[in-house]
Give the backbone structure.
Amino acid sequence: MLWAAQWVLAVSMVGAGVFKLALPAGQAAEMMPWSTEHAALFVVTSVLDVIGGLGLVLPALTKVFPWLTWVAAGGVLALMASAIVFHLVRGEAEEITGNIVLAAVAAFIVWGRLRIAPITTRLPRPEPFTGTLPVAHPPVRMRVAQIPTGTYSTPAALAVRGGSIRDQREFASTAILIEHPQGDLLIDAGFGKEAEMHIASLPSYRQSAHSLNPTVSQQLDDAGYDRSRLLGVLVTHTHWDHVSGLDSLDVPVWITDDELDHAERAKADRVFTMVAGNHEKKTYRFDGPAYLGFPASHDFYGDGSVVVVPAAGHTTGSVIVFVTTPDNRRYAFIGDLTWQIDGVTDRVERPLLMQRLADSDPAKIRRDLTRIIAIADRYQIVPAHDVGSYEGIPLLSELR
């Protein structure tokens, strides 16, 4: 229906503009007396009719700056509203019926393209990865479990381009436990026991309605887990909802120098410095070869079961963790490369405003997101905050 409305309004506007511009002066004066009294206005509004009509369809068709579609509709709405006032002031109420109809259609398009069906620019579809997957020799006793620590609510419109404001998404805050004979590892730490305080320390625009589960620490204890096995927490990056749980985990933090530097310079999110000040920091380097299109890697255990690659873009030291299990399940824990799986399946980035607020380098996000899209049919892609992407990964309680 929106497309039909756009085409009807576009044809009407372009047709009216071209008609008025092509109309001989004498006929224009006879049909529209105001055209002689306000000759310049007549020409300008005719040109605006054509521009507005083209703007209603060309950006949407070409996907070049598609947000101009609703801008054009808004411009048509303003133009029609001005025309209505103009004719009423001149005592020409009989002339405004068409303007009212066109204004209503324009308002419908603005509302529809902002709230119901935004037109988005997709990333180019990369060639699927068809090569041999990296060699991995995970030990038979290796296991992977998820530890959900809670969720918070965010409209899809703020998560991915094209998301609806009415689609309320539950953002996961979930840690991953890797049990390995050489020692166990957590990927991120989830919400902590002081999560309420951590949330309150954030700028107001980052505070959302949330629901808290038991912390990672509590769930480990409830499962009878032997903490002496835990080598530490490997953080994908240092934003609060990935590190809050460090407040109740007395273990080392595995982190890159770049991410440590990012955390030290952060101003709006100081939770990492609050919770990790006394933790031992174990830094690592990307000392391994290229991996699935990423330029370098770090093999955590040396057997290919857990491989970390650099993914600077969300923060300057963000990483992605690839995990291969003994039954050859392959996971890509991509942190906040995209917040929701739509970013991968629909090839869309974060909304422009959220890019400005959340990402250090959107160009690097695009590059790495394209790399992940290329392997999406070979790996289970797990954006940190997409609840559904954890499906199939057993809960810690299910392994005990």
